[in-house]
Design goal:
The chain has 369 residues and is an alpha/beta fold. The strands form 5 sheets. It has an 8-stranded parallel β-sheet with strand order 11-10-9-5-4-14-13-12. A 3-stranded antiparallel β-sheet has the order 1-2-3, with no helix packed on it. α3 runs parallel beside α4, α6 packs parallel to α7 and α11 packs parallel to α12. The chain is globular.
């Protein structure tokens, strides 16, 4: 009798652990060089909100996701990391305390429970999330915080045994929370990983091994790298070079990376605004060759948003059948209970004239494809 009871408990646990057929059918996937969401294969638009997982008011989270959904945007990229090297006050949101002696993953109400609510709210509204695990930059900790805790250099982070061990512990903690959620569009290794002056093998090897590790934890959701798309043979200017240790075309070949991503910030990179359409089309061509979709994952300017960025969107739609699967502008702006969200100059605020141009009109153009 005990063995029968134990077997029943085991089967019940398995049923809870495995996604249902219905849940699996709701997962975002690739279909050639396009994406499929909820059974629909097409070009998708979306946006970025690094801050939504750090909000402490659930109604604010719901407001943002209501507005995103109502705007016709389907994909939202959020920060899945918030690293600290000393424990902040109890009313400050943080996800991971990094320490050489005893790192801690915060699963409390001011920790990953905040991200939990974002996932739950996105599920209800049919919005799909890209969640990344570490930042190249020092904002919200990132690789520099790991260096503070475990030593070495930022370029050495990719091969730092102790840093990588904690990074994987964090990945396992986050993936384990949402492995069955249909709200996850993809897991992302990091935000804009760079290794300045490094051989491109460094990031390639790290991305190969890390994506295989994530695949061992989650067989169903997509995985991507999160890079800026540096390293293309189609040009000679700074972003086409491999000085940052990134080879876009080489990394596209990694088995467990389901699609390629790239960013575009001409102001930061000292390239002309009108080089955007070529940048977009060159990546689409590389993705088409690799047989994987491209996602134009971040793009922005600090002024003249509509006039400058609309040609980039138009270029992406021109190659929607030839490698380009979607685009996400940086970044979403909204009015919350405590006022407007962060404005870094690139922000496109809900219901603004810029939003009409870059969201409403863009969605109309997508629907007309």
């Amino acid at each position: 009798m005990r063995s029968v009871f134990a077997l029943a408990l085991g089967l019940l646990s398995l049923a809870h652990a495995l996604p249902s057929a219905k849940a699996k059918s709701a997962l975002a996937t690739t279909n050639g060089t396009r994406f499929s969401i909820d059974g629909e294969t097409k070009y998708f638009a979306g946006t970025n909100s690094y801050w939504i997982g750090f909000l402490t008011n659930n109604k604010d989270v719901d407001t943002v996701l209501d507005h995103i959904s109502a705007s016709g945007l389907k994909i939202l990229r959020v920060w899945g990391f918030n690293d600290v090297t000393s424990k902040p006050s109890s009313n400050t949101v943080w996800f991971q305390l990094l320490s050489a002696s005893a790192s801690q993953i915060n699963t409390g109400s001011n920790g990953l429970q905040r991200l939990d609510y974002v996932v739950q709210s996105a599920e209800k509204r049919g919005v799909k999330l890209i969640i990344n695990f570490v930042n190249n930059w020092s904002d919200y900790g990132g690789m520099p915080a790991y260096v503070t805790a475990f030593g070495g250099t930022k370029e050495g982070w990719y091969t730092n045994t102790k840093a990588q061990a904690q990074y994987r512990k964090y990945i396992a903690a986050v993936v384990g929370r949402y492995v069955n959620s249909p709200a996850i569009f993809a897991w992302e290794l990091g935000n804009e990983p760079r290794c300045k002056g490094c051989n491109t093998d460094v990031i390639f090897k790290w991305a190969t091994e890390t994506s295989a590790y994530i695949r061992s934890l989650d067989h169903d959701h997509m995985i991507t790298l999160g890079d800026e798309g540096f390293g293309l043979a189609a040009g000679t200017s700074y972003p086409y070079q491999t000085a940052e240790g990134v080879d876009f075309e080489k990394n596209l070949a990694i088995k467990d990376l389901d699609f390629g991503v790239f960013h575009f910030y001409p102001g930061s990179w000292s390239v002309p605004n009108d080089s955007g359409p070529k940048w977009v089309k060159d990546h689409a061509a590389a993705c088409k060759k690799a047989g994987k979709p491209c996602l134009f994952e971040e793009y922005g300017t600090e002024s003249n948003h509509c006039a400058i960025q609309r040609p980039w969107q138009q270029a992406a739609l021109q190659v929607a059948a030839d490698g380009m699967g979607g685009d996400l502008f940086w970044q979403w702006g909204d009015k919350l209970s405590n006022g407007q969200t962060s404005n870094d100059g690139n922000t496109i605020y809900y219901a603004s004239t810029d939003a009409t141009c870059l969201i409403t009109d863009h969605i109309k153009a997508i629907n007309a494809l």
